[in-house]
Amino acid sequence: MNIFRLAGDMTHLMSVLVLLLKIHTIKSCAGISLKTQELYALVFVTRYLDLFSDYVSFYNSVMKIIFIASSISIVWYMRSHKIVRRSYDKEQDTFRHYLLVIPCFILALLVHDKFTFREVLWAFSIYLEAVAILPQLVLLQRSRNIDNLTGQYVFFLGAYRGFYILNWIYRYFTERHYFRLIPWVSGLVQTALYADFFYYYFKSWKNNEKLQLPA
After folding, report:
1. Who's near 11: CB < 8 A, 6+ residues apart?
2. Which residue ranges does UniProt annotate as crossing the membrane (predicted)?
């Protein structure tokens, strides 16, 4: 564990806490893409199949449980909670997320570390996470006006991936034979998708203006 990995984990956790805070306190999921939340739930479930079979550390197990449980609970709130679901903008959240799932699964079958059930699903989760934010970004572009909690949620998600890239760079220079092509390339793709959002996020912060993304 190094400082960049810890910072990445904490910003990832912060993104979840910010979203749960929005849902629990104001009983609203306005501006949040259910499609993206469903993709993240699929990402964590397929990635952490080793939760009860391979013990790494208490910290590792707790973080896995948090991300699986929180992603599933967020989907439940947006789909089934009698108050929260009313604020979900289904008409704006129209990105066909299955168009992301199918290519990612095919890519995982073709490009993986080992051709085993768990390794293929692990690769699938990495590829899917790289593009899971797309429905959310499209929804923000359509809605234009973004509330503070939604903006902070997406910011922390992007920051998490940025810290993880620094973690990989650090490990590459400090650990012998550390090389993982699949997460590195996927992480760079994911970070690139946030570039436009970060530009307008910092621009709105600098000018003390409400965050807006161009259509």
Report:
1. 156, 159, 160, 163
2. 55-77, 98-115, 121-140, 152-170, 182-202
Q: Which of 123, 84, 119 is nearest to 106 (CA)?
A: 123
HEC string of 21-57? Answer: HHHHHHCCCCCCCHHHHHHHHHHHHHHCCCCCCCCCC
- Which two three-digit tokens encode residue 158? 């992007």
Task: Per residue of the chain (215 residues), give pLDDT as tens.
Answer: 899 999 999 999 999 999 999 998 899 999 999 999 999 999 999 999 988 888 889 999 999 999 999 999 999 999 999 999 999 999 999 999 989 999 999 999 999 989 999 999 999 999 999 999 999 999 998 886 688 899 999 999 999 999 999 999 999 899 888 888 899 999 999 999 998 889 988 888 888 888 877 76
pTM of the model: 0.92
Contacts of 113 (CB under 8 A, 6+ apart): 119, 122, 123, 182
State the Cα–Cα distance between residues 68 and 32, nearest whole angstrom: 18
- Lookup: tokens for 99: 């168009």
Question: What are the domain boundaries of the chain?
Answer: 3-206
* Rounded alpha-carbon distances, angstroms, from residue 192 to 20, 81, 131: 26, 34, 10
